[in-house]
Specification:
Zinc Finger, Delta Prime, domain 3, about 55% helix, 5 strands, alpha/beta, single chain, Rossmann fold, 18 helices
């Protein structure tokens, strides 16, 4: 079933019919269902007998091939790490790598994948003339991969539709963006979430704010044990004093390497994102606004905000944003955590006035 906040976009796509362009770029924050919509559109395009509402029938031979993962004219282009996580469980794979069990899978879409795609698209389709490529996340391409894809977008094979999904379109080459029709996805309005809230479990609803108002992000976080992770995060920051920053860095290093965190896919990038959202709420309160990401902790945040200046909190946010840029490839996890917490305590935990 299509999520209610995606239904207007779906209707517009269906109405385009044969006027659908050969390349579409779905752009918006993560956790909205962009990939799900791309998959639904791909299913419609490949289906022999789409339903009246535009969705694939699910019963024809083409749908049966697709559902079994064997449709010869349907191509997924994703980073190797994403493919491995989908096949065998990201937590177990991460735990094995941490223990020295093998080389980490690439988080990039590499040029060899596009070359293989070029070869596959150079021959006639196996079932009719329609072929569909879903590429997600598009920003995972480096410049060489993007240039290889650009050749396909400039001279697309007959009957081929490219569906690119991106949460960071500015990281795409301008030439890639210019070859695609862009479809923008925005955070759902409150009324659009009514149906979701009626059916979502309490854990997902409690994590909706931390997920930036993105319902699917909240669901994924809840399934990964997000409530327990959040409780520890808040508990540790709530009692943190400047003198304890280095001690907490050591504890958080062990936490990020624990089975619990690895199974949840909770690493340094996610932790830094939470810190940024925490400091963002501090800044909002210091400026007379309301919290956005941690509404249940508004009292604690208000007490912390009263101890720091606007300049200190703003500076801390900017410094954490710099740390986020290297969070996926830190040279030394412990040093990054120490740097992060020392900057935070200097701005907040130990500040006065």
């Amino acid at each position: 079933m299509m999520h209610s906040w995606l239904q207007p976009t779906w209707t517009r796509l269906v109405e385009l019919g044969e006027r659908l362009p050969h390349a579409l770029l779905f752009v918006g924050p993560p956790g909205l269902g962009k990939r799900e919509l791309a998959e639904a559109l791909a299913a419609r395009l490949l289906c022999d007998t789409p339903r009246a509402d535009g969705h694939a029938c699910g019963h024809c031979p083409a749908c049966q091939w697709r559902l079994s993962g064997n449709h010869p004219d349907f191509y997924h282009v994703v980073p190797a790490a994403d493919a491995a996580a989908a096949e065998g469980g990201e937590g177990e794979a991460a735990e094995g790598r941490e223990a020295g069990g093998g080389k980490a899978k690439s988080e990039q879409i590499v040029i060899e994948q596009i070359r293989e795609l070029q070869g596959a698209l150079s021959v006639t389709g196996h079932h009719g003339s329609r072929r569909v490529v879903v590429l997600d996340p598009a920003e995972a391409m480096n410049v060489f991969t993007a240039n290889a894809l650009l050749k396909l977008l400039e001279e697309p094979p007959p009957g081929c539709v490219f569906l690119l999904v991106s949460s960071a379109p500015r990281r795409l080459l301008p030439t890639i963006r210019s070859r695609c029709q862009q479809w923008l996805f925005a955070r759902p309005a409150t009324e659009e979430l009514a149906h979701w809230k009626a059916h979502a479990d309490a854990g997902a609803q409690a994590l909706l704010a931390l997920g930036g108002g993105m319902p699917l992000a909240a669901e994924r976080l809840a399934l990964a044990g997000g409530e327990a992770l959040l409780q520890r995060f808040v508990r540790d920051l709530g009692k943190l004093q400047a003198a304890d920053a280095l001690k907490l860095a050591g504890q958080w290093e062990a936490w990020l390497k624990s089975k619990e965190a690895l199974a949840a896919g909770f690493g340094l990038p996610e932790l830094v994102d939470w810190m940024l959202r925490w400091v963002s709420d501090l800044a909002a309160l210091r400026l007379g606004g309301r919290v956005r990401f941690f509404p249940a902790q508004e009292g604690l945040l208000a007490a912390l905000a009263s101890r720091a200046s606007v300049a200190a909190v703003s500076s801390c946010y900017n410094e954490l944003a710099q740390i986020r840029r290297v969070a996926r490839h830190p040279l030394n996890l412990r040093l990054v955590l120490e740097d992060l917490l020392l900057r935070y305590t200097r701005a907040v935990a130990g500040a006065r006035g």
